[in-house]
Design a protein that fits this description.
Layout lengths: L1 E12 L5 E12 L3 E5 L6 H8 L7 E6 L2 E2 L4 H6 L1 E4 L11 H11 L4 H14 L15 H13 L5 E5 L7 H16 L3 E5 L3 H7 L2 E6 L2 E6 L1 H5 L6 E6 L6 H4 L3 E5 L2 E6 L2 H13 L3 E6 L2 H8 L6
Parallel strand pairs: 3-8, 3-9, 6-7, 7-8
Antiparallel strand pairs: 1-2, 1-4, 4-5, 9-10, 11-13, 11-14, 12-13
Helix pairs in contact: 3-4, 3-5, 4-5
Length: about 300
């Protein structure tokens, strides 16, 4: 049984103009996997999360969480999920401990288990030493980790995290990644939205790309990368005139004095690096990244 499944899920907003936020989304998420939703701003990622977390009614279609219909069995769905909204703010007079402990009690946990889960969650996000400080005295990143800890302490089977690491520094972000992967190993299902391509590439078992309300790709990172013919990228810095003939037959994009050239195979990439170095340019090559593929799939074709 899938942890989450949507069938032809649609959401239309009616106002001064009609906006089709979701246009028939079919997504299935396995139990015990970390599934990432990628897409530009306004693509429909948050709308999808709000529907499957029973916060928003779909216009049409179906959605299920652990077999429970989000429309007819919303209360059952809520018993099994925990959510970190995108722009959640902390209560200034709450402490990280209170967020974890009292929210766990509200879910029906015993006091003993709530204490155990709260301690485990706060240590996981490295807030144990700050557990009794009010959130008003914490930094922005520490507040975000307090919210994440409250969800981790919930012991819910399905966790829905809408851009949970936005605003965190690189060190804190990677600590959260470690915690998320550990929870997946404990058979939890995690649905994550992010704009950080490295995050999606590092933590995801599978992912989906949504653009303008439409699902345009779904699969593992390698399966998504396989959707474009270019396999390698060459980054060159300097005067390109000597290489213009070679460059013009490839997909390229320029960033100031640097240019990224996309090629089909490794030998071609290495040969281009040789040509660049012989002409006194700086050059390096690597496999294409998830960000390269994402940009191309959502309409930012390589120029």
């Amino acid at each position: 049984m899938e942890a989450v499944k949507s069938i032809d899920l649609r959401k239309t907003y009616h106002g001064k103009e009609t906006i089709d936020a979701l246009k028939g989304i079919n997504i299935f998420i396995k139990k015990g996997e970390l599934f990432t939703l990628l897409g530009p701003n306004g693509a429909g990622k948050t709308t999808f999360l709000r529907i499957i977390s029973t916060q928003l009614l779909p216009t049409s279609g179906e959605a299920y969480v652990l077999g429970f219909n989000v429309l007819g069995e919303a209360e059952k769905v809520r018993e099994h999920i925990a959510v970190v909204p995108q722009d959640v703010a902390t209560y200034g007079n709450f402490t990280p401990w209170e967020y974890c402990y009292y929210f766990s009690l509200l879910r029906g946990m015993t006091k003993q288990k709530a204490k155990e889960m709260s301690e485990k969650a706060l240590k996981a996000v490295e807030l144990w030493e700050l557990r009794n400080r009010t959130c008003a005295t914490l930094s922005g990143g520490e507040k975000k980790r307090a919210i994440i800890a409250s969800v981790l302490a919930s012991d819910a089977e399905v966790l829905m995290l809408d851009e949970p690491t936005s605003g965190l520094d690189a060190v804190a972000r990677r600590k959260v990644w470690t915690v998320l992967r550990e929870m997946v190993e404990q058979d939890k299902t995690i649905i994550l939205t992010t704009h950080i391509m490295e995050e999606a590439e590092m933590v995801s078992d599978r992912l989906a790309i949504i653009n303008r309300g439409e699902l345009i790709a779904q699969g593992t990172v390698e399966e998504i990368k396989g959707l474009v013919k270019e396999r390698f990228r060459v980054v060159v810095e300097g005067n390109f005139e000597a290489l213009e003939k070679f460059v013009n037959i490839h997909s390229t994009v320029a960033f100031g004095s640097k240019r990224v050239i996309y090629v089909d195979d490794g030998e071609e990439a290495i040969e281009f690096v040789r040509k660049a170095l012989k002409n006194g340019l700086r050059a390096e090559t690597s496999p294409i990244t998830l960000e390269d593929v994402f940009v191309k799939l959502v309409g930012g074709e390589f120029e």
